Each structure stands twice: as structure tokens, then as C-alpha cells.
């Protein structure tokens, strides 16, 4: 992919034939909506499996819970990382067995644990004493893995540190206690932060995991069986990352260094990297204005905004490539959504270069928007309906 020079070149993001298919479909619909190209997800899944041929894939359903996506991944043999009983019902309703499910949310009610257990789920994440005790009571005999804190927040575009995970010492205590409570101390998980640009973050996290594996074996005689390396793999946005093959090569090397005598079971929980690049959010320019006759930049208001699916523009964290068919001279613009809320501004510090001949009614194509858009969309803010989604191509 080329360095961003202000003009978004669609061929940096999609095969020409794929974008033509998305565009042809989009031309027949009223904006705003997301089009998901299913064959692109199929290819991303196959690439991931080929790059990490020793790992089991658990798709993080939160990235995009569309039934067509879940069904596609189900048929390809994926497992599923589930965050709530609602996701569980949806995925099991599509014919996925409980053995293919991990309850990956460390924040849950005792009643939720009971519900998962009753439906046959046996694999649970935890990071606290109270949650562990609840799991022992509501899901006796379950396999538990403990999530550790990671330190990738400076280099992840969408960090997940602080809220989830515990320190190494506590992870050792929890896994030891799990055994005493009649649970199976199964492994350790981490998430280095979503859209993690620094591959070394996995190295630092694996070093912690290795210490936990060794201490439990030496001090308690407990042999852990699994490492869950989470998600964090990249999608193609404006800020460049290495490609997935480079991530896989490096991470595999870190594993070989730390677990030279053989890998335990390895789980990956990708969301963004599998789905984002398959989606295009199509919006329309509602209004273009300047705040004074001499203002140096325009405000471009579109019919989609922070509350309509673009919440990851919070703090301008994720910078989506935006494509327009207008090709006039560029000028930086503020990009904002349609609601009566001043938080509904996507990019203000980063003045988005847009053509001067752009006008109301023109379409803007937000590329790489398949993940974390529809599932974040508000249900009725200012009366706007949730972001529509169409899955095509299979
Ligand atoms: C537990 C867990 N696993 C996996 C993921 C997916 O991460 P990503 O979309 O970066 O691949 C998330 C994202 O929030 C998560 O919370």
C-alpha cells in the first residue's frame, strides 16, 4: 500500500473486480449502508489459517455479528469467541456446537455463566477472584484461562489495556485457585490491543505467559495446555502496518523462542483483520459549509456519523480511507455526521483532504469498514435507524 498522499486509491484496498461488484450493488441502494463482500472474508480466513497453521481460530463475533458472516466462518471450520448470552444465542441458533465456543468476556454475571454452562459451553476466560468463584459454582469442572494485562496501548490504534487482564502474580494465584475449586486450569490469554501496529507487543506478552507456565509447573505441578493470543491483527486503514504474513512469521518466531520444546494449543481470536477489509460504508454528502467567508476549510456533513457506525473515529483513533469519484483539487475538510450532537464529528484535527468540487448528494465510500461499524450503530439517535448492512457475493 502506498503512503497516504491525500488521494484514496481504491486499488490499494480492494481487488478491482471486488470493488466493481460492491459499487454495482451500492448504486442500487439509498445511503447510508455497509456492503460486505463475503468472498473477501473467505480469502482472509484462508490466509489466516495458512499463516498460522498450528492455531485454532475463534472469530470475535463482536467485530460483525451478521448471520451470513457467522455462517460462512462456521462452514469453514472456525470457532467463536463470544462476549454475551445474546451472541451465544445467535451463534448457536446458526448451528454452531458449544464445543466451538469460548466465553471470552471477563465481565459477566453469575447468571450468564450458568446460562453458558447449561448450553454446553466449557471454556471460560477470567481475570478476577470473584469471577473465578462464580465460574466454579455455576460451571463446575469448566476449563478456565486467565487473561493477563498487556502493554501495547501506545502502538495500538484501538487499545484494550487496563480494563481487561490481571498482573502475572494474580494470574498464577487464580490458576492455582482454579484447580483447588475443581476447575481445569487450562491456559493464559492476552490481547495486545486492536489494530496493533507493533509486532513486538506479542513478544512482550508471550514472555509473561512463559513465566506463568513455568511458575505453575514448578511451584504447583500444574501443566497448562493453551495460549490464547487474542486479536489485534491489522486491517488496511490510512496508517500503514505490516502485512499479516509478517505478523505471522514474527509471532511464530517468538513462540518458538519461548516454547522451544513444543507449542501448547494456540488460539487466535481475530475480529478486525478478518472482516474490516471486506466492507465499504457508503454515505452521501448532506451539506458543505464554511464558518465564515474567509474560513480556510470546509465542514463536510455526511449522512453517516459517529452514532451511525463510525464510533471508532473517537479521538480520531481509526482513520478510514475515504474515496470519492470527484477528483478536483484537494483541500482539508472537517468531516462530521448528521445528528444534532457536537460530538458527532469524525475528523477535525486531521483535516481530511477532499476535492473542492465535492458537493451535496455526492457519495463518499468509507473503505475497510466491515468491522466494528454496524454492531456499534445507535438504534434511534435523532431518529436515524441503525446502519443498514448487505452481505453480497456468496
Ligand atoms: C476478548 C477479545 N478477543 C478478540 C477481540 C478481537 O480483536 P481484534 O478485532 O483486534 O482482532 C476482542 C476485541 O475487542 C476481544 O475483546
Characterise the protein shown here:
There is one protein chain. This protein is α/β, with parallel strands linked by helices and 394 residues long. It has 2 domains: 10-34 and 276-392, Beta Barrel (Lyase, Ornithine Decarboxylase, Chain A, domain 1), CATH 2.40.37.10; 65-270, TIM Barrel (Alpha-Beta Barrel), CATH 3.20.20. Helix content is 29%, strand content 23%. It has helices at residues 16-26, 38-51, 67-75, 85-93, 110-118, 129-138, 168-180, 200-220, 244-258, 272-275; strands at 33-37, 55-60, 79-82, 101-103, 123-126, 143-147, 156-158, 184-189, 194-196, 226-228, 265-268, 279-289, 298-302, 322-323, 330-336, 345-355, 363-367, 388-392. Strands 1, 12, 13, 14, 15, 16, 17 and 18 form an 8-stranded mixed sheet that branches. Strands 2-3-4-5-6-8-10-11 form an 8-stranded parallel beta barrel, surrounded by 4 helices. It has a two-stranded antiparallel ribbon with strand order 7-9. It is elongated, with a radius of gyration of 22 Å. 45% of the residues are buried. Bound molecules: pyridoxal-5'-phosphate (PLP). Pyridoxal-5'-phosphate (PLP) binds at residues 60, 62-63, 81, 104, 160, 191, 194, 230-233, 269-273.
Write the layout of secondary structure elements.
Layout: H1 16-26, E1 33-37, H2 38-51, E2 55-60, H3 67-75, E3 79-82, H4 85-93, E4 101-103, H5 110-118, E5 123-126, H6 129-138, E6 143-147, E7 156-158, H7 168-180, E8 184-189, E9 194-196, H8 200-220, E10 226-228, H9 244-258, E11 265-268, H10 272-275, E12 279-289, E13 298-302, E14 322-323, E15 330-336, E16 345-355, E17 363-367, E18 388-392
Parallel strand pairs: 1-18, 2-3, 2-11, 3-4, 4-5, 5-6, 6-8, 8-10, 10-11, 13-15
Antiparallel strand pairs: 1-12, 7-9, 12-13, 12-17, 14-17, 15-16
Amino acid at each position: 500500500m502506498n503512503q497516504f498522499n491525500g488521494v484514496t486509491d481504491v486499488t490499494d484496498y480492494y481487488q478491482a473486480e471486488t470493488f466493481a461488484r460492491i459499487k454495482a450493488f451500492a448504486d442500487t441502494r439509498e445511503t447510508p449502508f455497509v456492503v460486505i463482500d463475503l468472498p473477501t472474508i473467505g480469502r482472509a480466513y484462508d490466509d489466516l489459517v495458512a499463516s498460522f497453521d498450528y492455531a485454532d481460530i475463534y472469530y470475535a463475533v463482536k467485530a460483525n455479528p451478521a448471520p451470513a458472516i457467522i455462517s460462512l466462518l462456521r462452514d469453514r471450520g472456525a470457532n467463536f469467541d463470544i462476549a454475551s448470552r445474546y451472541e451465544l444465542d445467535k451463534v448457536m441458533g446458526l448451528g454452531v456446537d458449544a464445543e466451538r465456543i469460548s466465553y471470552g468476556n471477563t465481565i459477566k454475571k453469575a447468571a450468564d455463566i450458568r446460562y453458558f454452562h447449561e448450553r454446553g459451553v466449557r471454556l471460560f476466560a477470567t481475570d478476577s477472584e470473584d469471577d473465578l468463584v462464580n465460574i466454579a459454582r455455576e460451571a463446575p469442572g469448566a476449563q478456565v484461562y486467565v487473561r493477563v494485562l498487556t502493554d501495547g496501548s501506545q502502538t495500538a490504534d484501538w487499545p484494550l489495556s487496563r480494563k481487561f487482564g490481571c498482573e502475572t502474580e494474580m494470574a498464577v494465584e487464580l490458576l492455582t485457585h482454579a484447580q483447588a475449586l475443581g476447575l481445569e486450569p487450562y491456559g493464559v490469554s492476552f490481547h495486545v490491543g486492536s489494530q496493533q501496529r507493533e509486532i513486538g507487543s506479542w513478544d512482550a506478552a508471550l514472555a509473561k505467559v512463559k513465566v506463568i507456565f513455568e511458575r505453575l509447573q514448578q511451584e504447583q505441578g500444574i501443566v497448562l495446555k493453551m495460549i490464547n493470543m487474542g486479536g489485534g491483527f491489522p486491517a488496511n486503514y490510512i496508517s500503514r502496518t505490516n502485512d499479516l504474513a509478517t505478523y505471522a512469521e514474527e509471532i511464530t518466531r517468538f513462540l518458538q523462542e519461548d516454547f522451544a520444546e513444543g507449542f501448547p494449543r494456540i488460539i487466535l481470536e481475530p475480529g478486525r483483520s478478518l472482516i474490516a477489509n471486506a466492507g465499504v460504508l457508503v454515505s452521501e454528502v448532506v451539506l458543505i459549509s464554511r464558518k465564515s467567508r474567509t474560513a480556510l476549510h470546509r465542514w463536510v456533513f455526511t449522512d453517516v456519523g459517529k452514532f451511525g457506525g463510525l464510533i471508532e473515529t473517537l479521538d480520531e483513533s481509526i482513520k478510514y480511507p475515504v474515496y470519492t469519484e470527484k477528483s478536483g483539487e484537494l483541500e482539508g475538510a472537517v468531516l462530521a455526521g448528521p445528528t444534532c450532537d457536537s460530538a458527532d464529528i469524525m475528523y477535525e484535527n486531521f483535516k481530511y483532504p477532499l476535492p473542492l468540487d465535492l458537493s451535496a448528494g455526492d457519495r463518499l465510500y468509507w473503505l475497510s469498514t466491515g468491522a466494528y461499524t454496524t454492531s456499534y450503530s445507535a438504534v434511534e439517535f435523532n431518529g436515524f435507524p441503525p446502519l443498514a448492512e448487505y452481505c453480497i457475493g456468496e
